[in-house]
Each structure stands twice: as structure tokens, then as C-alpha cells.
């Protein structure tokens, strides 16, 4: 690779390259060499911006979590609009049709990454924990609006929706599930509370 060439927004370029590798080839294929090759830059670029490869991976996951915050705000703003099932279907589809499924595999696959991410963060699997909080906030808002039962256990319902959604989208080699399949899972899960 050529050296001495300025790379515009190297962090973003490296994160995008890592996400492409994760989606295409899975966590086993994600190495510093694969990332820099995919990004079209010298290996030293990664090490100039990150302490080591696990630092790079931790920052990649934290970047993904930060992106989830915008989705959480949009979902919360949707409370009281459309149907609860439609809003949840869209939220799960948006969450899992992105690189999130591959990132969850990466977190599960790499012990050191998981340990780094758990420092100063809530218990659970990073990204899924924040996604569960997003769903709890939305379901709480819908409960306050009277669109779901006042006694709905949103703290149990949210991870149940996430687990079901993750199972639908977890096959990296297959075609994403149809919207109707996601909607069916959501409506089944919330049937007792809407």
C-alpha cells in the first residue's frame, strides 16, 4: 500500500471497511490486515488511530451504539402514531437488517472485545442492551398513552422482541425475512398487551 497519502476521515473509512467484512464474511474474517486492505490503506493507518485492534473493534461497536441513539429517538417519537406492531416491526427490521447481527456475532466471538466493552457499561451484550432500552422506552411511552395494557411488563417484552427478531435475521447467508414474518412475530409477542 502506498504511504504518505492523506486519507479523509480514516476512522470512518476503517469502520465502513470492517462492517463490509463482517456482513460479507463474518467475524472470523475480521483482522487488522483485512480491514486495511478493504479500506485501501496501509496497515499503519489503523494503528495510528487506535491503540490496538481490540481498541479499534471496541470503538467500532461504540460507534454502532451511538447510531442506535438516533433510531431510539425516532422510535420514541413514533409513540402514539400508526400501530404499535407496525412501529415495532420497523424498529426491529431497521436494527437487524443493518450490520447489527454481524456486530453481535463479533462481540460474542471475541472475549477481549466483550471485556473492554463491559467496562463502564451496563451488563448484557453491548448493542443488544441498548436496543432493549430503546424498546423499553418506546413500550413505556405507548403504555402511558394507553395503547398497551397498564400492567404490560415492558422489561420482559423488550428482550423477548429482540430475541425473536434476532433469530429471524441471524442467518447471514440467507435472504432477510419478509416484513410479514417480522410483523407476525411482533403481533404474536404483543397480542396479550395491546
Task: Provide a short characterization of the protein structure.
The chain is mostly helical and 194 residues long.
Explain this structure:
- The structure is a single chain.
- This protein is mainly α and 194 residues long.
- The protein folds into 2 domains: 41 residues, Orthogonal Bundle (Arc Repressor Mutant, subunit A), CATH 1.10.10; 129 residues, Tetracycline Repressor, domain 2.
- 68% of the residues lie in helices and 0% in strands.
- It has 10 helices and no strands.
- It is elongated.
- The N and C termini lie far apart (57 Å).
Average pLDDT taken over every residue = 90
Count of strand segments: 0
Biggest sheet layout = none
Overall helicity: 55-70%
Number of domains: 2
Large-scale geometry: elongated
Strand content: under 5%
Q: What is the helix/strand order? A: HHHHHHHHHH
Given as residue ranges, the uncertain stretches (5+ residues, pLDDT < 50) are 1-5
CATH class of the largest domain: Mainly Alpha
Distance between the termini: 57 Å
- Radius of gyration, in angstroms, nearest whole number: 19 Å
Query: CATH topology of the largest domain, anyone?
Result: Tetracycline Repressor, domain 2
Summed up, the helix count is 10
Topology (elements, then pairings):
Layout: H1 10-25, H2 32-39, H3 43-49, H4 53-77, H5 84-96, H6 100-109, H7 111-118, H8 128-144, H9 154-169, H10 179-190
Amino acid at each position: 500500500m502506498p504511504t504518505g497519502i492523506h486519507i479523509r476521515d480514516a476512522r470512518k473509512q476503517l469502520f465502513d471497511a470492517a462492517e463490509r467484512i463482517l456482513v460479507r464474511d463474518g467475524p472470523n474474517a475480521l483482522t487488522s490486515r483485512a480491514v486495511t486492505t478493504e479500506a485501501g490503506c496501509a496497515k499503519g493507518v489503523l494503528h495510528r488511530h487506535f491503540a490496538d485492534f481490540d481498541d479499534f473493534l471496541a470503538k467500532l461497536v461504540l460507534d454502532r451504539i451511538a447510531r442506535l441513539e438516533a433510531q431510539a429517538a425516532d422510535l420514541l417519537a413514533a409513540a402514539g402514531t400508526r400501530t404499535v406492531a407496525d412501529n415495532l416491526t420497523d424498529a426491529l427490521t431497521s436494527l437487524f437488517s443493518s450490520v447489527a447481527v454481524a456486530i453481535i456475532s463479533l462481540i460474542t466471538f471475541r472475549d477481549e472485545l466483550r471485556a473492554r466493552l463491559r467496562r463502564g457499561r451496563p451488563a448484557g451484550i453491548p448493542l443488544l442492551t441498548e436496543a432493549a432500552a430503546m424498546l423499553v422506552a418506546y413500550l413505556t411511552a405507548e403504555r402511558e398513552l394507553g395503547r398497551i395494557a397498564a400492567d404490560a411488563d415492558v422489561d420482559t417484552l423488550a428482550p423477548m422482541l429482540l430475541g425473536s427478531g434476532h433469530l429471524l435475521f441471524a442467518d447471514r447467508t440467507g435472504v432477510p425475512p419478509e416484513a410479514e414474518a417480522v410483523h407476525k412475530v411482533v403481533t404474536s409477542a404483543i397480542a396479550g398487551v395491546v
